[in-house]
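Narrative summary of target 7.
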Amino acid sequence: MTTTPSTRCLGLAVWLALCAGPSGSVAQQQLRAQAPSQPGLDAIFLPFAGSSTPGCAVAATVPGQPRLEDAYGMADLERGVPNTPSTIFEAGSVSKQFTAAAVVLLAQRGKLSLDDDIRRYLPEVPDFGGRTITVRELLNHTSGLRDWGVVAAMAGWPRGTRATTNAHVLDIVAHQRRLNFDPGTEWSYSNTNYNLAAILVQRVSGLSLAEYTRRELFQPLGMEHTSWRDDYTRVVPGRALAYELLNDTLRTSMPNENAYGNGGLLTTVGDLLLWNDELDTGRVLGSALPAALQREGMLAGGKPTGYGAGLFLGRYRGEREVSHTGASGGYRALLARYPERGASLAILCNQGEADAAALGHALADLLLGDGASKAAPSPADARPPRLTVERAELERLAGVYRDRGTAEPVRFQVSDGVLRTRGVALEPLSGTDFRGTSGPEFRLVFQPAPGGGGGRPKALGIMGRDTTVLDAVAPADTCAAHLADYAGDWYSPEAEATWTLAPEDGKLVARRRPDTRLELQPAYADAFTSTPGAVWVFDRDASGKVTGLGIWLQRARDMRFERVR
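Modeled conformation, tokenized:
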């Protein structure tokens, strides 16, 4: 399924969790014998070399150096076909920049405006209480639209389990009654944005996204091996099969769906470098298109998002980095550029365990060498003298909090005189300001309890440019006798799904036809968690009766369920 390297939309609870060689095949050896020695490249991809594992293709360029290009592992384990630099892979979310390019081209040719309300072209999208969603907000991931794959999974159809089309996606959107947030106020990655963009291209141009991009992008740029997986049953000569490990056994993992635009690009590493060259030079399509794709999105109030139109805009080793990762079935991908150095790299893999982003940064280290600038130390990196906070004050801060954006529980406890969360020790910068001591840097700033008094405060989790609000909440009621309050059949018209909840052996259990069973774990008062990453939050009226249920999932907040029995 399509993914993103950013963790900004995951919420503090998930984000904190991040803290906690065989010989090559004969065919590959023959290919390498015809190319210059590339020991640095081979060392990076050594885990994917050999005739018993799927692997990767890679290509990279930097001015003044020979082009690096090679392939590792097998394209087809059953038939013994090795990967080559010309092997076709699926690029996952790397595809989004091509969908964005099609939309931007239509805008530059006067066929639409990026500031148009999307309902001008997609009237099926609800108005969500009069909230306008612009075309630009689709491309910038600031629309607030829920990710359709998460909604479908709630109904028992995870990605890849049925032949979903873009029409299905539009139908799912048409059933939604609310957004994750008001358009333009937050950034949250959602594949829905790009499936709707693909439909928009078809309705405005009269051509499918596949045909429009073939005529306007792929043919002019000489991307002869690039197409879309708009029909997953189509035979694609030279395509690698995708694999993932399941219980330590490799199994095929193909994206058997026809929804595309969010992902679904079939391509080679060589074709991707042709595209990167166009983004650097604009020599074929003109400079306006690359500039538009790399224009950073802005939130209301002028806050930058770090994302353009289908492209992440960041820095690595002090260098400007324009990139996107991708994952679809067992395919993994990365396309990255370092414009200040003229360096470009493409990685396509058919092994689900391949970390394309990590491989890409290892390759970038090789390309950029010692000449890459080092980021200047941030003033925040200067650590003040270590402080000691009284245990009584730490105990006042401890307890369970609710992430306002995701509803996830975040627990703080005092151990050995230190405030901790998920095993991460928090270093006090003051009595109310703390910093994580391991993993990605984050800050926690506790503010006075609402309304004053001596109650527990709320906390602000600060991760880079983003701030998450954590509200102090009452602990979970673990009395088994109270579980009957939540029992019944709960139906969501948004997901078109029914869950049956009932106490079993002192636990609250959720069942969905035909055979799904989840044990819900107490999180805080009237809230439970379950796999995969869901938070079940119940509403009560003034009399204390349970009256509603909202299920919070990554990329789909507060999906409403009503008790029907």
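The chain has three domains: 89-368, 381-472, 480-563.
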